[in-house]
Write a structure and sequence with these properties.
This protein folds into 2 domains: about 50 residues; about 120 residues, Rieske [2Fe-2S] iron-sulphur domain (Rieske Iron-sulfur Protein), CATH 2.102.10. About 20% of the residues lie in helices and about 35% in strands. The chain is built from 1 helix and 11 strands. A hairpin with a 4-residue loop joins strand 2 and strand 3. The longest helix is centred in the first third of the chain and has 38 residues. It binds FE2/S2 (inorganic) cluster. The site of FE2/S2 (inorganic) cluster has 12 residues, from loops.
Amino acid sequence: MKKENNNSPEQHNSTEKSRRDFLQTVGVGSVLAGLAGLGFQSLRSLVPNVLYESSQRFKIGTPAQLPEGVTFLEEKRLYVFKEGKSFYAISASCTHLGCTVKYTKLNQPKEVEENGEKKTINHEFHCPCHGSKYYADGTNYAGPAPRPLLWHKLELSPDDGQLIVDLGEEVEQNFRLTV
Ligand code: FES
């Protein structure tokens, strides 16, 4: 059965007008939303992409203030060594799953090969979690640790002569800062 259109011509025109108005509104809205998006992106491009995280570089005092031998910076999980005028820093983060490795004094000195050189060591690093062991230079030799412990860069601050540790910068195992 054919459906009759009972609308009067005025009603029909009014419906058409409403539809046109609606479509116009939607169209204008989309354009405005697009422009707003572009505007946001332009403004965003003016803001530098900076990661606001705690600094990887920090001062740990002057060379004279640091005691001879090893100092453990618990918060930073870092071992800093002073051997006379030489300084170096080894991460305490186990390369297996990140537990804190313990500086372990050996009962007897031990002959090992570090970096192709025979050396006598008096300490090692042992991980309490799954038994990984590292020589004094951080080379892994037992347990599941896949890599040596990381070494981090040390430098002297030109302002006040303090040692600066840079956790963001890795260095080789033969790195020494000599002051
Ligand atoms: S986290 Fe150190 S051995 Fe597993």
